[in-house]
Amino acid sequence: MKTYTTIVIDDESVARQRLIRLLNEFDGHFQIVAEAQNGIEGAELIDRLKPDLIFLDIQMPGKTGFEMLEALEHIPQVVFCTAYEEFALKAFNTLALDYLVKPIEQERLQLTLEKLNRSTDKTPQIQVRELLDLVRQQTETKKLLSIPHKIGDRILLIKTEHITYFAASEKYVEFFTADGKKYLTELSLKKLTERLPDDFKQIQRGCIVNINFVKEYRKYFRGKYILVLDDLNNTKLETGRSFAEDLKEFISFD
User: Which of the chain's ends, N or C, has fewer CB atoms near its CB within 10 Å?
Assistant: First the structure.
């Protein structure tokens, strides 16, 4: 039985621990030798431990996954953990060992293991460079146009133009569409604020709203406001006092 020394690199602790738990269920095929919460820490661990394989998130503070790979001397096999759109996934499929769309499921990891077992050589450095150049050109400034939602073995891509707001829950972020439907994503609010189109604005610590769906605002107390959304449920959202100033360019607060 082949065992692959593995490092998991993801800035979100919940996603990192969930992936490690899933990998540990594969009867010793994946030997987790380390985990990292950012690209700087990840690069140091990779050059020191020289693992066979890394599971790599791309959007991380400090150094992105791309920037981390560019700086490596030892380049292992790479499995990307991503929420990128279809054009980028095609690039990963061609030039990387594998890509995984969050939330990751054990059944999908089985396919990754099968790919790994069929692979005879580590990914050549020139191939990684080609992937980085291609994906960076297309995604460096690209906003998210859809959000993945996992249903069984299917992944729905919900267009952001139909999403009214995002709300943080205990482990995931919930998001809602104008027809009142609720979905889940493992993307954090922090990552969403970085990648969503400009019409999405954070109105409190745990909520991002699509300004296009705000039909009414009401003064509340202590400098706060209530936003009423143009959706099936006429959803009412309370703004945080510190976020009201940022909303003034979109909504005419007096």
Answer: C
- Domain residue ranges of the chain, discontinuous segments joined by +: 4-139, 146-247
pTM of the complete model: 0.55
Q: What is d(CA 254, CA 249) in angstroms, rounded to the nearest whole number?
A: 12
Alpha carbons 180 and 171: distance in angstroms, whole number: 21
Phi, psi of 108 (to 5 degrees): -70, -35
Distance CA 68, CA 45 (A): 11
Best CATH choice for the domain 4-139 from the list 3.40.50.300, 1.10.3300.10, 3.40.50.2300, 3.40.50.10950: 3.40.50.2300
CATH 3.40.50.720, domain 146-247, yes or no: no
